Here is the input.
Amino acid sequence: MKKNNKDIDILCVGEVLVDFIGHQTGVLINNTRDYHRYLGGSPANVAMNSARLGLKSVMVATVGDDGFGDYIFERLDEVGVNTAQVKKINNKPTSVIFVSRTDSTPDFVPFRKADSCISEDQISTELLSKTNIYHTTCFALSKNPAQTTILKKAEEAFNLGCKLSIDVNYAKKLWKSQEEALKIIKAYCKFNPLVKISEDDMLRLFEQKLPHEDIFNFFHSEGVDTVCLTLGSNGVKLSQKGKEVIQLPAIQIDVVQDATGAGDAFWSGFLFAYIKEKPIKKCLEVALQLAALKLQNVGRLPDNINILSELL
Here is the structure.
């Protein structure tokens, strides 16, 4: 939990992208005609949400020296994310992703260039020594050199007393093989991160529908104490090693505008309450509130998300 000398609440390491989200609702990419531009990338969403909730968040990422890279800096800077560790490179363009607009897990086509070029010099020992939570994603770990950098620095962060976190947002099309993905996920799990997974992620990762208990046991056996499994409209289950599973329903909303980023909103709320040293059930309640807000908005969360501070 929070230490006096840790003036960075959350260090988000990984992909920052430009998302082109389909304008037509409920259709796959092949039937989407128009796209609207948004800032994307799961760690970037968490960094931005955290900053807007009043936390000190730092982004570690790489973009191209181009118009999309400039757009990303503007968007991160305007909400107060520290971008000193976001690197611009001129030999690869900023990564972009085309995403279908849906109320479930979206279809996407990635064009990955600069995002995986994260190097060790972007994450100094001094930076880690000031950090409370070191957060990354399965997406970021899927490609080198980012993969090697993130794992090496995760170990250093762990040894310096950071709490680690990961969103296991596994997508087959990003990895060389399922075997490699499992090996890298297990390597990260050795450092006892807070783990966020979804039912969809787990179906893709294990290529079969496993009982929730088996999913929890997989992560616990790899060294993880706390595993949070999101169930879409059925809410969430959280398993802490040796304790009873907590299950909470989703907050009911009338119309789902856009599911893209709902998982990131959920995890931002969870980590926000966790950093504030709230009980684990309260962390889940805040997470569900933020996810419900996201589902009602296309693109970013609305400007009034800091009202969540009042729920604590």
Remarks:
- Residues 97 and 110 are 4 Å apart (CA to CA).
- The chain is about 35% helix and 25% strand.
- The chain has a mean pLDDT of 92.
